[in-house]
Amino acid sequence: MSQGAKILVVDDEHAILRLMHLALKGHGYQVLEAETGEQALIEASTKRPDLAVIDWGLPDLEGIDVLLRLREWSRIPVIMLTVRDAEQDKIAALDAGADDYVVKPFGMGELLARIRVALRHAAKGDLEPVIDAGGLTINLAERRVELYGTPVRLTPIEYDLLKVLAQHAGKVVTQRQLLRQVWRDIDPDNAAHYLRVYIGHLRKKIEDDATRPWRIITEPGVGYRLVTEAPQ
Fold first, then answer.
1. Strand order in 6-10's β-sheet?
2. pLDDT of residue 127
3. Which parts of the sequence belong to the Response regulatory domain (predicted)?
4. Positive or negative torsion for Cα 150, 165, 8, 101
């Protein structure tokens, strides 16, 4: 997989982009480039690279925010580039889903070696960035939701709930999982009512009939399931 792999390089320093482009091309890789976080997300969702090298400091988004957005739908290896060498920054990057972390200035030999390692250990099978649930379209790459082609306006919590369910479409997601992933530091044992309230709000926006939901199914005492096919 290493030879000919498609590498997305995200950096707003032209000199770095030029250096990495030449080095990667010289080692047989295909190279995609982006100078902003939003451009990087578009390149990743449309051209599906095998690995991304993302600079922490971008003009529009922090590199770690690009990583978090990417991890909503993609498992491609990501190597973070940064001038920061603090332990907490490395932990933050790895916790956010980075596969490796290289501090500037770096040698191309070191970066190329880390790319080879990351590609060898690459997880198989990305999630699809666009999920269709019987007329409900969830674009994870662009954070856009449409119902029969009409945009659906969701609050951040409603979107996060739908995103987690979409990431596990067809499978039951437990209440504890949803609470921890959406509210993070909330006590899941005492917050089930939050979930019921927001699932109710979400159903009013994405179900054909909120009183008879079929897209978000309740699994009594367990959690919820996003169904992707309309009932016959």
1. 30-34, 6-10, 51-55, 78-82, 100-103
2. 64
3. 6-119
4. positive
Q: Is residue 81 packed enough to be buried (19+ CB in 10 Å), middle (13-18) or exposed (0-12)?
A: buried
Nearest-angstrom CA–CA distance, 91 and 97? 10
Residue 28, Ramachandran bin (φ over 0: left; ψ between -120 and 50: alpha; else beta): left
Range in 98-107, 130-139, 199-208 the model is least confident about: 98-107
- Percentage of residues of the chain with pLDDT beyond 70: 94
Q: In the chain, which segments carry CATH 1.10.10.10?
A: 130-226
Span between the terminal Cα atoms of the chain, in Å: 43
CA distance 191 to 111: 45
pLDDT above 80 for 116: yes
Beta bridge mates, 80? 54, 101
3-class state of residue 57 by DSSP: strand
CATH 3.40.50.2300 segments of the chain: 6-120
Q: What is the pTM of this model?
A: 0.69
Pair 186, 169: CB distance under 8 Å = no
Under 8 Å between Cβ of 224 and 217: yes
Banded pLDDT at 216 (limits 50, 70, 90) = very high
3-class secondary structure, 9: strand
- Is CATH 3.10.450.50 what the domain over 130-226 is classified as, yes or no? no
